[in-house]
Amino acid sequence: MSLIHIVITVYTSLLCVMMEVKVTGAYVDSKVSPSVYINSSSEPLSADEGQWAGHVAQLVAVKVQTGCGRMQNRLVTFEDGTKACARYRVNSNLMQGEIYSYFLAQLLGIKNLPPLALALPDINTRQWSRVADAVLQSQWQADKLIILTKYISNINEVVLPQKLKGLLKDGVTPKDLTQNNMELYAQWSDLIIFDYIIGNMDRLVNSLHNQQWNSEIMDMPVHNLARKDNSLLFLDNEDGLFHGYRIMNRYSQYHEQSLHTVCVFRASTVSHIERLLQANDLGQMLIDVVQKHEPKALKYLPRISNKTMDTLTQRISNVMEHIRICEQQYSS
């Protein structure tokens, strides 16, 4: 066989392999299962995600106005034009839920949550002195944390993909994947897994629960979900882990229904789940991440309980069991 023949043969073989697995930047990971796992990287919502907390800490607030939802939430503008949604809750469980859910998402490799930072709205400090009247009108207490989430403009409402509207049916399986919808379904899969793990009933589970009174709810925009360009935004996760776990039994059937709507998974998310389950103390791992990035959460809010940690570990185990069932069902 000539050298030219060998080169052509090798090139043709490589080309065939590339054509078999590559799908416009997202492809099924043939090393694990040729159909269940989507090998596509989750991109952060903003390039400065890792620097958000440090950046905001140095800024001076120049305007506080109504916006960013209900109650005592406010839209804050800083001197350099940076904007943030400020979340303030008297209920510490809701503050914990937003914070711990965010850092759990980081451990899961899910990057669809806007970056957050913690602050104390003390009007005697340089950061808040110029908006003292607005802070007082908001009834924020100087010794209670606010959560500053990066404000993202020009976002759009999101409705369920047609395949997910029948949540009581088959849902999304490998046969539904195309080169045009793979990344979209990878994000929906991440969302459903994330909400199941944190016990969040204020998004898809909310739609399922309310379907008994409103048959058209599946055609309406999903609560606490938005889209920026091609990325889904998982907003308002305060019900996660703490409040969500406390009332989980009331919504357990809807959590299970939601989880079983997907049998396709981002390969990197599954890898993160496997690593978390291999950890000796998953709850402590989560606390350590919070301590590293936002130690004020541990100083000003109650500690996460052992019961919550145990429930978290069980929920992640349930997801892994579901993934393995899908893998067995659809592997060729």
Let me know the average pLDDT.
Answer: 85
Main sheet record: 5 strands, antiparallel
- By DSSP (H or I, 4+ residues per run), the number of helices equals 13
In terms of DSSP E residues, the strand content is 5-15%
End-to-end gap: 35 Å
Rg, Cα atoms, Å = 22 Å
How many beta-strand elements? 11
Can you tell me the residue ranges where pLDDT is under 50 for at least 5 consecutive residues? 1-34
Biggest sheet, spatial arrangement of strands: 3-4-5-7-6
Q: Could you say which overall geometry the principal axes of the C-alpha atoms support?
A: globular
The helix fraction, in percent, is 40-55%
Question: What would you call the structural class?
Answer: alpha+beta
H-E order: HEEHEEEHEHEEHHHEEHHEHHHH
List strands and helices in order, with pairings.
Elements: H1 3-21, E1 27-28, E2 37-39, H2 52-57, E3 61-66, E4 74-78, E5 83-87, H3 92-107, E6 116-119, H4 132-137, E7 146-150, E8 156-157, H5 162-165, H6 182-198, H7 204-210, E9 225-228, E10 231-234, H8 243-246, H9 248-259, E11 265-266, H10 267-278, H11 282-293, H12 296-300, H13 306-330
Parallel strand pairs: 2-11
Antiparallel strand pairs: 1-2, 3-4, 4-5, 5-7, 6-7, 8-9, 9-10
Helix pairs in contact: 3-11, 6-9, 6-13, 7-9, 10-13
